[in-house]
Automatic annotation (TrEMBL), chains A, B:
InterPro entries: DHFR-like_dom_sf, RibDG_C, Riboflavin_Biosynth_HTPR. GO terms for biological process: riboflavin biosynthetic process. It comes from Actinoplanes nipponensis. This is Deaminase reductase. GO terms for molecular function: 5-amino-6-(5-phosphoribosylamino)uracil reductase activity. Residues 4-192 form the Bacterial bifunctional deaminase-reductase C-terminal domain. PANTHER family: BIFUNCTIONAL DEAMINASE-REDUCTASE DOMAIN PROTEIN, DIHYDROFOLATE REDUCTASE FAMILY PROTEIN (AFU_ORTHOLOGUE AFUA_8G06820). SUPFAM superfamilies: Dihydrofolate reductase-like.
Length: 214, 214
C-alpha cells in the first residue's frame, strides 16, 4: 500500500526558509534549519556520497535513514527543482547536480510550458507536469509500484497536498531557533491531529521531530 | 541572585489560548494546551490541594515541580487575575479562589484606577500597579528577597517582559496540537536563541518542553 510522505524543516516559530536567491536556492535560513540533518551519517552517504562513515548516528540519523527508505517516486515544486533560476534555458537540468539523490521518477509541478523529461545518471528522471495535485499523485503512485510517494517540497507544494488531505505521513524537523520570517508552515493545517496520530521526539542535537501519521 | 522566570503554554503552531469569556477565563483552547500539565501530581497537589498522590510523575511533573520552586513574587496581567471579568466590582477578588496557589506577593498590572491590595489566605497578597514593566519588576524583585520573580502571564504580559530583555528563563510547554487561532507566542522574539541557551525535551505525554535560559 503506497503511502504519501512528506519531510519538512521548520523553526520553533513555525517558519520555513525565506530569502530564496540564485546563491541561496533553498533560502538564506536553510542552513540554520538543516544543520542537524546535514550532519547525519545518512545525509553524508546519500547526498554527499561520503561513505567514510562520517556523520552523526543518533535520533536525527534514524529519521534521515527513514527518509530515504521505500520511496518509489517523488513530487516537487518547480522552485525545488530550480526551474525559476534559469526559466528560459531549456537545457537547465536543475540544481541537484549531475547525479541527483533520488534514484526514482521525480514529477516537477510547473505552470510553465511542458518540457521534455530529463533522465539523469543514478536512476532519477525528471518529468514536468502542469496538472492538479491529485492527478500527478495518481501518476506518481502508479510509477512507485507499491512503494511510497514522497512530496519533497517546497512548503507551498507540501501544503497543497496536505490541504487536499492526500498525505499519510508528515514528519517535521523543528530546529530550536526563532527565525521570525519565512513561509508559515502550519497555516491551514489546524486540527491535523484529529485525522493523524501525533508523535514527538527530541534528538541529541535539540531538533524536535514531530510526526503526523494515519 | 533573583532570576525572572516565565512558564507558558503553546500549540505546535505557536498559538496560546484564544476565546476568553467569563465561562472560559483562560480561553476556550486552554484545556487542550494544559491537559498534560493539569494531569501532573504536582498540579494536583499545588492547585487542587489533592495530596492523595494522584497524577503523573514523569517529565511533565518535573517541570511542574520546578515551576513552583523558589518563587518569591509573581507578576501577572489584569486578565490573568480576572480583573476584566467584573471590572466595576471593587470587591471582586479574582478567579483564583479563596486560597490562590501563589503564596507570595502578586503584582497585577492594570491600566485602570488603583485599587487597594487584597491579602488572601495562604500567603498570597494581590497588589495592583499601573507602572512600567521595569518598575514593577524592581518592586517584585525587592519583595522576592533573593528568590525568583515569576511573570505568570498572560502571553501579552509575558511578551512585554521578553521584548524588554528582562527574562532569564523562559519555559514553553508545546502541546502536540494545531490550534490555528489565538495569540501568537513567538512574534517579536526571533533570535532569542542568540542570548539564551535553548534546550528541548519531550515528555511521555508528547508535550515538547522548550527552555530558553541565560
Amino acid at each position: 500500500m503506497t503511502r504519501v510522505r512528506i519531510d519538512l524543516f521548520a523553526s520553533l516559530d513555525g517558519y520555513t526558509s525565506a530569502g530564496q536567491t540564485p546563491d541561496h536556492p533553498m533560502g538564506e535560513d536553510w542552513g540554520r534549519l538543516t544543520t542537524a540533518w546535514a550532519a547525519t551519517r545518512t545525509f553524508h552517504e546519500r547526498v554527499f556520497g561520503d561513505t567514510s562513515g562520517a556523520g552523526t548516528t543518533g535520533v536525527d540519523d534514524s529519521y534521515a535513514a527513514a527518509h530515504f527508505e521505500g520511496i518509489g517516486a517523488e513530487i516537487m515544486g518547480a522552485a525545488m527543482f530550480g526551474l525559476h533560476t534559469f526559466p528560459d534555458d531549456p537545457d537547465w537540468r536543475g540544481w541537484w547536480g549531475d547525479r541527483p539523490p533520488f534514484g526514482t521518477p521525480v514529477y516537477v509541478l510547473t505552470h510553465t510550458a511542458p518540457r521534455p523529461s530529463i533522465p539523469m545518471p543514478g536512476g532519477t528522471t525528471f518529468h514536468f507536469r502542469n496538472t492538479a495535485v491529485a492527478d500527478v499523485l495518481a501518476e506518481a503512485t502508479e510509477a512507485a509500484g507499491g512503494r511510497d510517494v514522497r512530496v519533497g517540497g517546497g512548503v507551498g507544494t507540501a501544503r497543497a497536498f496536505l490541504r487536499a488531505g492526500l498525505v499519510d505521513h508528515l514528519h517535521v524537523m523543528i530546529a530550536p531557533v526563532l527565525l521570525g520570517r519565512g513561509a508559515r508552515l502550519w497555516d491551514d493545517l489546524s486540527g491535523l491531529e484529529r485525522t493523524h496520530k501525533v508523535t514527538t521526539e527530541v534528538a541529541e542535537s535539540g531538533t524536535v521531530h514531530v510526526t503526523f501519521a494515519r
